[in-house]
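Practice record 12: protein with zinc ion.
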Amino acid sequence: MTRQRQLVYNIIMAAPEHRTAEEIYDLARAEMPSLARGTVYRNLGILVRDGRIRKLEMPDAPARYDRERRPHPHLICEKCGKVEDLTMPEGLLSPLTAGRAVTGYDLKLYHVCPACRAR
Ligand SMILES: [Zn+2]
Ligand SMILES: [Zn+2]
């Protein structure tokens, strides 16, 4: 891995936040001021392609990047956009998928997070 790619990867692996490319770029540039935005975007694409991280497409908002590679549902605040991982209960999908060779899923649940509710 190049130093630039390693830096982008380390930022994603360091925290459970599902950051946007812009957020990752800001953090990366704090460590490597010469880093170009295009380099960060290109390396994110390569890391996704190589299966090291996952890209989470968001409706009407920039995609986010996820260090957890196993399929899992997401809980998304519809006010601030905060994304949390949920654990899929064992066997929950099997009544829906019986007999089908399901290869993955993309489940997003929406709520208003406690911080936004308190506002
Ligand atoms: Zn919120
Ligand atoms: Zn996630």
